[in-house]
Design a protein that fits this description.
Elements: E1 2-7, H1 14-22, E2 30-35, H2 47-55, H3 59-72, E3 77-80, E4 97-102, H4 109-112, H5 114-117, E5 122-125, H6 131-136, E6 142-144, H7 160-165, E7 170-175, H8 183-193, E8 198-200, H9 211-219, E9 221-226, H10 237-243, E10 247-250, H11 253-256, E11 267-268, H12 272-284, H13 286-304, H14 306-320, H15 341-368, H16 401-408, H17 414-422, E12 432-436, H18 442-447, E13 454-458, H19 462-471, E14 477-480, E15 492-496, H20 505-515, E16 518-523, H21 526-529, H22 549-557, E17 560-567, E18 577-578, E19 588-595
Parallel strand pairs: 1-2, 1-3, 3-4, 4-5, 5-6, 7-8, 7-9, 9-10, 10-11, 12-13, 12-15, 13-14, 15-16
Antiparallel strand pairs: 16-19, 17-18, 17-19
Helix pairs in contact: 10-13, 13-14
C-alpha cells in the first residue's frame, strides 16, 4: 500500500517532523509526505478562504493541486492529515482512496472540517468526542485516530530505566496559553490552588519554553495537567506526558476513559475542583502516582507511538476496503479567464444570498407590524372552547430503537449519543447510579469508563434492552426490565429524555426523589424544537408533551431544593454550559439536589 501523506507546514522545519513520522511506517507501507501549504510555513486555509480561491481558480492553488495530482498518480490512498487545504471538487481529479483526517475542536469545525469531511471516502477524527458530529454530517466511514507524536518528540524505549530511576523534584506543570476563552477561568483556579506549580506559555510570567527545556522538565515532572478548551481529549500532550513517565491528570473524563484505563494509566476529571483534589491526593500518595505513570508509559508504547498509529491506520484502511479507483479522473479546472463562469459564479451566489436575506427581513417585518383582522383569532368571538395545549397519548415505555435500526440503520440518533456523553460531566463523586429509561444503554457505556461506578439500568422496551445487553455490557453495568426502588439505595438517578414521554409526571418525580438524593434529568426545549405559538401535539408521536426551561425548572423545584440548568451549545458536541429559564438552548439538562422529604 502506498499512502500520500498530505500535510500543512505551519512553522519552519515541520516538513522534517512529518518525514520523521513517515519513516516509522510499517515496511510493507510506503508513506510519501507532501506539503499542501502554498508558501510554507503557513497556516491551513479556512473553508471560506479555500472555496473562494478554488472558484477564482487561484494560480498558486491550482499549481499546488497539479503537483499533488502528479504525486498521487502511483498512490493508493490520499491521507489529508490536517486542515481544509484540499477542496472537495478537486477530489474528483484523483484516483486515490481519499481519507480526511482532522484534529479540530468543535469551535472551528464549521470553517474547517464540516464543509469538506463528507466528500471524502472516509474520515479519521482526532477528537474522540467528535464522532457524533461526523455522523451527523453524513460521514459513514469514520474512526478515531490518535494524534501523531514524532519519534523525535518522545524518549526512546531504551530510556525507560532512566525515566523511572530517579526521584522527580517538580510536582506539577502545564504548558499552554493562559488567556484562552473558557479555559482561562479553570487555569486561574488551578494556579491559585498551586502557587508553586510550573506554567509556561503565552500569558504566563515565564512565557514560552524551548523544546529542549520542555523535555528536561518532563523528565523531572511528577504530575502533568491537561486542560482543553471544550471537548476532547485531543492534543499531543495527551500522549507525550506518559511517554516521558509523567502521570497525567486530564479533563474530559468520559473521552479519556476510552483512550486510557482511568485510575490505572491516567486520571480523569470533569470539574477543576476535582482536578485540584486529585492533584493533592497523588502528590501525597507517590507510590500510586508512580504506578499510574508506569502503566501510562506502557500503554503509550503499546498503542500510541508513531509506528503503532501507522499500524492502526493501515488496519482501518483495509477494513474500509481502501483501494485506488478504476474510473477515469476528471481534468483539473481551467485557469481564470478561460472559464468565465468560475468568476461570475461567486458573484451571483452572493447576490442570491443578499436577496434571500432582505426578503426574509421584509416578510418578518411586514407581518409583525400587520393589524389586519384576518390575522386575528375568531374563536373567542364565536364562543368556541380552545385547549391550552394539545398532547399525545403515552406510548407506555416503548423505545423507537427497532424502528430507527430498520429505517436508518442505527440504534441511536447522534445527538442523543452526544447528550449521554455530555451529562457524564455531572456525575461527580456518585458511585452507585440508577438510570430510568436507559434505552439501548449509551449513558451506561460512557459512564462505565470509571470502573469504580456501579450502574443499574431500567428499560421496559425489550428490544432496546436486549440491544444494550448485547452491545454495551460491562462488568459494572446491570440491565433490568422493572424498577425495584429502595430509598437511599443510589447516589444518583439519571433520566435522559424520559419526562416528555410520561403522561402522569407527579408519581414519576416522587419516585425519582426517593431513589437518590441527586438527579440528572434531561428533556428537549420546546422553544428550540418547535415554532413559536405551536400548541401541539408534539410532532414526535412518542412525546406526550414538551417543556421550556422555565417549566422544567418550576416543575423540578417542587421536588428538589436545588435545581441547576444546563444545555448543549451544539447538540452534536458533548459539551454543556449553564443556562437560565429564559434561554432556548436544547436539550435542557437539569441537575437536581437535596430532594424534599417523601410524604
Amino acid at each position: 500500500m502506498k499512502i500520500l501523506f498530505a500535510h500543512v507546514v505551519y512553522r519552519p522545519s515541520l516538513d522534517k517532523w512529518y518525514a520523521d513520522i513517515a519513516n516509522v511506517a510499517p515496511s510493507h507501507v510506503d508513506v510519501k509526505p507532501f506539503c499542501v501549504t502554498l508558501s510554507p510555513p503557513g497556516k491551513s486555509f479556512s473553508w471560506p478562504q479555500l472555496n473562494r480561491m478554488w472558484h477564482l481558480r487561484s494560480p498558486r492553488l491550482m499549481n499546488m493541486y497539479r503537483r499533488l495530482r502528479a504525486a498521487a498518480v502511483d498512490c493508493d490512498v490520499l491521507l489529508a492529515y490536517n486542515g481544509a487545504n484540499i477542496h472537495p471538487d478537486f477530489l474528483k481529479c484523483l484516483t486515490t482512496y481519499n481519507v480526511f483526517c482532522c484534529f479540530d475542536d468543535p469551535e472551528s469545525s464549521a470553517k474547517l472540517s464540516e464543509p469538506v469531511a463528507k466528500h471524502f471516502d472516509a474520515v479519521f477524527h482526532g477528537n474522540i468526542a467528535s464522532q457524533f458530529q461526523y455522523q451527523h454530517w453524513g460521514c459513514e466511514k469514520r474512526a478515531w485516530l490518535p494524534i501523531f507524536n514524532a519519534p523525535m518528540d518522545v524518549p526512546d524505549q531504551a530510556e525507560r530505566e532512566a525515566l523511572f530511576a530517579n526521584d522527580r523534584t517538580c510536582d506539577t506543570a502545564l504548558i499552554c496559553e493562559r488567556h484562552s476563552g473558557f479555559r482561562h477561568q479553570r487555569l486561574e483556579k488551578l494556579a491559585s490552588a498551586f502557587p508553586n506549580a510550573t506554567f509556561y506559555g503565552d500569558g504566563w510570567p515565564q512565557g514560552r519554553i524551548s523544546q529542549s527545556k520542555l523535555f528536561d522538565l518532563y523528565r523531572n515532572l511528577k504530575i502533568g495537567w491537561n486542560i482543553h478548551n471544550s471537548t476532547g481529549p485531543i492534543n499531543r500532550r495527551l500522549f507525550q506526558l506518559p511517554a516521558f513517565g509523567v502521570m497525567q491528570i486530564c479533563d474530559n473524563k468520559c473521552g479519556l476513559g476510552q483512550i486510557y484505563r482511568l485510575g490505572e494509566e491516567a486520571v480523569g476529571f470533569d470539574t477543576i475542583h476535582e482536578a485540584i483534589e486529585l492533584t493533592r491526593y497523588y502528590l501525597e500518595h507517590d507510590d500510586e502516582r508512580r504506578r499510574i505513570a508506569e502503566k501510562g508509559y506502557e500503554r503509550f508504547w503499546k498503542d500510541y507511538h508513531a509506528a503503532a498509529i501507522w499500524q492502526r491506520i493501515v488496519k482501518q484502511l483495509k477494513s474500509w476496503g481502501a483501494k485506488r479507483k478504476e474510473q477515469r479522473p476528471k481534468n483539473l479546472p481551467l485557469l481564470p479567464g478561460s472559464d468565465p463562469k468560475s468568476i461570475i459564479r461567486p458573484v451571483l451566489q452572493k447576490v442570491k444570498r443578499n436577496f434571500i436575506t432582505h426578503r426574509t427581513r421584509f416578510t418578518k417585518t411586514k407581518f409583525a407590524n400587520s393589524s389586519h383582522p384576518s390575522l386575528r383569532s375568531e374563536y373567542f368571538c364565536l364562543s368556541k372552547s380552545v385547549k391550552a395545549y394539545h398532547e399525545n397519548m403515552e406510548s407506555c415505555g416503548e423505545n423507537a430503537a427497532k424502528e430507527r435500526l430498520l429505517k436508518y440503520g442505527f440504534l441511536d440518533w447522534p445527538n442523543i449519543l452526544a447528550l449521554n456523553w455530555a451529562i457524564t460531566a455531572l456525575i461527580g463523586p456518585a458511585k452507585k447510579i440508577v438510570e430510568i429509561g436507559s434505552g439501548t444503554g449509551p449513558f451506561a457505556e460512557f459512564a462505565s469508563v470509571d470502573p469504580s461506578r456501579e450502574i443499574h439500568c431500567y428499560e421496559k422496551d425489550g428490544f432496546a434492552r436486549e440491544q444494550a445487553i448485547a452491545l454495551r455490557s460491562h462488568d459494572n453495568v446491570h440491565f433490568f426490565d422493572a424498577l425495584a426502588p429502595e430509598q437511599g439505595k443510589f447516589d444518583l438517578l439519571v433520566a435522559v429524555e424520559v419526562i416528555e414521554h410520561i403522561q402522569d409526571l407527579a408519581p414519576f418525580l416522587h419516585l425519582c426523589r426517593r431513589m437518590a438524593p441527586t438527579a440528572i434529568i434531561t428533556t428537549p426545549n420546546r422553544h428550540a424544537v418547535r415554532p413559536a405559538g405551536d400548541l401541539g401535539p408534539p410532532a414526535y408521536p412518542y412525546h406526550v408533551r414538551e417543556f421550556d426551561a422555565g417549566e422544567v425548572y418550576m416543575m423540578l423545584r417542587s421536588q428538589y431544593r436545588d435545581v441547576a440548568l444546563y444545555c448543549m451549545p451544539d447538540i452534536y458536541v458533548p459539551w454543556i454550559v449553564p443556562m437560565t429559564i429564559r434561554e432556548k438552548g436544547t436539550p435542557i439538562i437539569a441537575y437536581c439536589q437535596d430532594p424534599y422529604e417523601a410524604e
